[in-house]
Amino acid sequence: MVKESSHGEVRRVEDIRFLKGKGEFVDDAKVPNLAYMGLVRSTYAHARIVRIDFSKARENPDFIDGITGDDIKGSTAPITVVPGAKETKRRQLAIGKVRYVGEPVAAFVSKTRYSIEDIIESVEVEYERLPVVTSIEESKKAKVKLYEDWPDNLTVRMGAKRGDVSNAISSSKTKVNAKIGIKRQSGAPIEPRSYLAIYDKTKDTFDIEASAQRPFGIKNYICAELRVPPEKVHVVVKDVGGGFGTKGAQSYPEPILACILSKKTGHAVKSTLTRSEDQLEDAAGRDQYCEIEIGCDEDAKITGLRAKLEADVGVSGTLSISVNRTQTLLPEVYKIPNVEIESFCYVTDKAPLGPVRGAGRPEAAFFTERAIDILARKLSMDPLELRRRNLLKTDEFPYDNGAEGKYDSGNFLQLLEKLRPEVQKMRHWRDKINDENSNLVAGVGTCMEIEDTGAQFKETAKISIKEDGIVVVATGSSPHGQGIETSFAQLCAQELNVPLGDIRVEYGDTNLLPFGIGTFGSRSMSIGGSAVVEVARKVKSEIIARAAKIEGLDPESLQIDNGQIVNVARDSGQSLKTVLMGLRLLVQKSGPIEMYSEFALKGIPYASGAHACSVTIDKDTGKVRIENYVAVDDCGIVINPMIVDGQLHGGIVHGLGGALLEEMVYDDDGQLTTSNFLDYTIPESVDIPENIEIIHVETPSPLTLNGAKGVGESGTIAAYPCIFNALNDALAQGSSATELCFSPISNEEIVNALRAIK
Q1: Could you tell me the pTM of the whole model?
Q2: Are 500 and 493 in contact, with CB atoms under 8 Å apart?
Q3: What are the boundaries of each domain within the chain?
Q4: In the beta sheet, which residues pair with residue 693?
Q5: Residue 548 φ/ψ, nearest 5 degrees
Q6: Does domain 455-600 have CATH number 2.60.40.10?
Q7: Preceding omega of 215 cis (within 30 degrees of 0)
Q8: What residues contact 714, with CB distance under 8 A and at least 6 apart?
Q9: What is the pLDDT of residue 578?
Q10: Distance (Å, whole) CA 321 – CA 324
Q11: 334-371: per-residue pLDDT in tens?
Q12: Is residue 569 scored above 80 in pLDDT?
């Protein structure tokens, strides 16, 4: 039974099994004839492979079999690379040379999990070290080329332009130029990636369980890289312990290698990464830097924006071009007549870059919103007022932002005005703290944010009603914590007018639907939810048509009321409802019902928000504390407030970690020095503000059937600039001219900036 909370909101139905310890994760799977896959990974960032020898490994009684890149070269295709990036031709196991620490060079199967480390140590690999490229600047010089057949180390170059930026900025009354960046950061899901592959010799098929955000994506990668037809591959995704983008877009070697070794050995093969392996190989995010210039006229109206974006994409992977989303969203929520942006992606000897919660969108907000605050300070203007003067108005939608972004809807002024009284409270508090002349200095930061929430325009859904009368919703979306089972059931219940308890949501199985896209890019509710609404409307029409035929009535007189089909007659102006039958009886009389939809957007929905936070900084230690945080958010129509608020809370905390704590650090030899949670610090309970207030604005998207836009990344996108603007406001209270512009910021860097105040 689906229960409501004390506030009348529907509680998440999926949480019950987790609270009872009944979650189904890949690493918990126990199947017959199970063996365990281990990977021998490169200990060098750049080196030629001279020799790989399994001789000593074969002496281990648990060793079953092993393979190298040369063994599978003829039977596999290179790792999938997104169109628009140069082809790397990298393989699931390195052939010839390695290009980052942790790159797999050999794979093997062990009878027990506990022998894996011993076997790894006994595999002999001889390397010839090569010079290492660990920075964008070194990559630009191209003295060392990662890919010998490339002319340089540049994998992607793109740009966008509208108007005459040079003239607009040169003739501006006031202009600012800033260098801003976010260093490399991990998605750091609590559950490392895990896969189970079972080859059926009699059917010549593969069954795979995966910890992933995209079951169909995993299937497509396996089919393409193993060169097998789709009907030979079945992928199932059950419960997932977090993804944050790292399990969404990248083609990783493990599922393909597990399939190969299952076929080769006859065992079911499980691969579960350790935390360090996950950090070494998972596609990291950010590592993007911007030179941005903004000019404005005498009325503080922005005249032009010019920017140069550069990203360190590591060795380049399946989707290492988050810079494209940054470029598209850099104009943010402002009306900017002249825009010119250039974007560059460079390869280095690091693991591939990829999407991490926001995937280029936090970078856009951080770069532009930091520059807006810097401009406001130069103008001696309230940052809220500068933003207000430049916001797009409601009658200007749909709006082309000049960087290939076409905003569908929004009410940015309402967002700002709802935030304003909260900011005034924070500023009064700030002034009181600073007047006390204590060991703390306080600041208040504000920002706006916008994000596209329609990544890949299609999604699928199917509704089936069998003899038991239960409504089964199958979706191509695949959750990893977003509450889809609850919210999709709500959408279906609302459309069909049936009890929530009579609806079951299924997902994560490539046999359920012809295809599906998955869950990432804040897309599930806007596109996946629209697919559910669309198919529910088809089912509703079919239910009414069947009931009308059985009863010999006009379909116009029939309705569905709480799962019962009723005849609505009118007598003396009053409606009289007669119950005809329930869904169970209907399908027993007329047969099962099954309907399918492929919903396709005709444009991209854009969510938006206005955030503010207050911070204190300890003058001696540089320790930052987020005192209060307020998010005014517009994700379109809110389907489940509890779930939406939870997504925003989680996103804000994720952004807090990115702003203050999280950095993947490589030394000069390309060794990752933050390969565990002792060295790579993520937010703990003591780092999280006690008060995160959420205020909703609902501007329905005209593109989605449920009016929703998406919310999974909004909090992260806004948190970076919001927190940094607060830090810089704190420094400005002491008349410091320092601008902190690189995230994450360390306590030591803050202390150095504070010295300008003392």
Answers
A1: 0.95
A2: yes
A3: 24-130+192-240+247-281, 285-454+603-754, 455-600
A4: 630
A5: -65, -40
A6: no
A7: no
A8: 449, 451, 522, 607, 609, 631, 633, 635, 647, 648, 651
A9: 85
A10: 6
A11: 999 999 999 999 999 999 999 999 999 999 999 999 99
A12: no
